[in-house]
Design brief:
Layout: E1 9-12, H1 22-38, E2 41-44, H2 56-69, E3 76-77, E4 85-86, H3 98-110, E5 114-117, E6 120-123, E7 130-134, E8 138-142, E9 150-153, H4 161-171, E10 176-180, H5 187-196, E11 203-207, E12 210-211, H6 227-233, H7 237-245, H8 260-266, E13 277-278, H9 281-294, H10 297-310, H11 320-330, H12 340-348, H13 356-362, H14 365-379, H15 386-400, H16 405-416, H17 424-431, H18 433-446
Parallel strand pairs: 1-2, 10-11, 12-13
Antiparallel strand pairs: 3-4, 5-6, 6-9, 7-8
């Protein structure tokens, strides 16, 4: 664990403007990781001073995204968005902290460090160079000699981002500010305000930007930019969280699937990469597949039930044991929750359609004759397990002097409407004898040859 001189207090301070961007989610994650690694606290602060852009719905989206990713906070606003706080401090909605900000503005005015200008209030920006010590970027020098004085309060009396950011970090005793590198240029202004208040600034750590594969900065409109997309498409949150960890950090062992407990143990600010991170949707898709294959049936069912209900595959009266059996045999094929409906629909629907191309290829006169022969053999089967079914298929094929595929392809199409799917013998075992025979009869009736 990292040695620190005082209890670590970090914060995630999103502005609720309609979505939780993947960059914001990664910032929240890195703050959460550092807090958990050091035994510190993560404060959630909603920067909602822009009344024209911020909505309760947008705040709810932030809560939903953080909770979906498993990023619990220690202090900050309650999910009810009622101004109460979780912890001993708060509330942490900036829109409710106007009196605090006014007190600090008045103090700067009284000390001659700020002045009124055309109805607004400006801070006297120091006109000297400054070096920002950054835990990730190293020392970065800024030339402030030509910087204009900084507006800290607008004509309408509302405080500006730079002021409220510093005041809240000071009031909330933030020890480390971990945020995107696009805020690095704001840091000289913030350090100047800390100095004006006679306060020791937090340690700053600016994490690299997230770029598209073509090297452009990832915007809100790009594919994969919103956490809501991953929720909607049925990604496993633990897989998305793993992927986000790798956007600027790595375990240094050429590994990409890393348990979150191990990341917490190893994560530290000096290990965060200085170079920008490349967003690779294909890597995320692969990681999600790895998590899907490793998931327990309980975890898969937890993901599958709401997805399948939403897609109309199952209702409230679904057979839980049957669903788990079906999930077990398609698990290696599925990567996203949205794919579950396609892989599992025929397990629960008897009126499924048949793939026309497969029908033309498989339900030939010979293929249908082979289906009839197999159907008769299956009707006499005493044991309907995958192992017993495989043996009976082999016995039938040998007796008829045919390849086993002559029977596999027609029955697969008959019971699923498709030419591909999970292991056939396990598929038939899950469907059961009665359902398998009924589906064979349906196909033979619909395609009499």
């Amino acid at each position: 664990m990292t040695a620190v001189s005082s209890p670590v207090r970090v914060r995630f301070a999103p502005s609720p403007t309609g979505l939780l961007h993947i960059g914001g989610a990664r910032t929240a994650l890195f703050n959460w990781l550092y807090a958990r690694h050091t035994g510190g606290k993560l404060i959630l602060r909603i920067e909602d001073t822009d009344a024209a852009r911020n909505t309760p719905e947008a705040v709810a989206i932030i809560f939903e995204g953080l909770k979906w990713l498993g990023l619990n906070w220690d202090e900050g606003p309650s999910p009810a968005n009622d101004g109460t706080s979780i912890g001993d401090h708060g509330p942490y909605f900036q829109s409710q902290r106007g009196a605090i900000y006014k007190k600090y503005v008045d103090r700067l005015l009284a000390e001659g460090k700020a002045y009124e200008h055309e109805g607004a209030v400006k801070f006297r920006t120091p006109k000297t160079p400054i070096t920002v010590p950054d835990a990730i970027c190293g020392d970065v020098t800024f030339d402030r000699t030509m910087d204009p004085d900084l507006v800290i309060q607008r004509k309408d009396g509302s405080p500006v981002f730079h002021l409220v950011n510093v005041v809240d970090d000071l009031e909330m005793k933030i020890t480390h500010v971990i945020r995107g590198e696009d805020h690095l240029s704001n840091t000289p202004k913030h350090l100047a305000l800390f100095e004006a208040f006679g306060a020791t600034p937090p340690t700053y750590a600016h994490i690299p930007l997230i770029l598209n594969t073509n090297g452009s900065k990832m915007s809100k409109r790009d594919e994969g930019a919103s956490i809501g997309e991953y929720i909607e498409n049925g990604y496993l949150p633990e897989a998305v969280r793993n992927f986000l960890c790798l956007l600027g950090w790595s375990p240094k062992e050429n590994r990409e699937v890393v348990p979150i407990e191990e990341v917490v143990e190893k994560f530290d600010l000096p290990q965060v990469n200085r170079s920008n991170a490349r967003f690779d949707i294909n890597k995320l898709y692969w990681i999600t597949g790895e998590y899907m294959r490793a998931a327990t049936l309980d975890r898969l069912a937890e993901l599958a039930v709401p997805a399948l209900k939403k897609q109309g595959v199952i209702g409230d009266d679904y057979d839980a044991a049957y669903l788990r059996s079906a999930l077990a045999i398609v698990q290696e094929k599925v990567k996203l929750g949205k794919e579950l409906g396609d892989w599992l629909s025929y397990f629960f629907k008897e009126d499924f359609a048949y793939d026309p191309a497969a029908v033309a290829k498989v339900f030939t006169p010979e293929g249908l004759e082979n289906l009839k022969t197999l159907r008769a053999a299956l009707a006499g089967a005493e044991t309907f397990t995958a192992a017993a079914l495989e043996e009976s298929f082999k016995t039938l094929a040998a007796a008829q002097g045919k390849k086993i595929g002559a029977y596999i392809h027609p029955i697969r199409l008959a019971v699923s409407g498709r030419s591909v799917g999970p292991s056939l013998y396990h598929l038939l075992e899950v469907l059961g004898k009665d359902r398998t025979l009924a589906r064979a009869d349906r196909a033979l009736a619909q395609f009499p040859g």
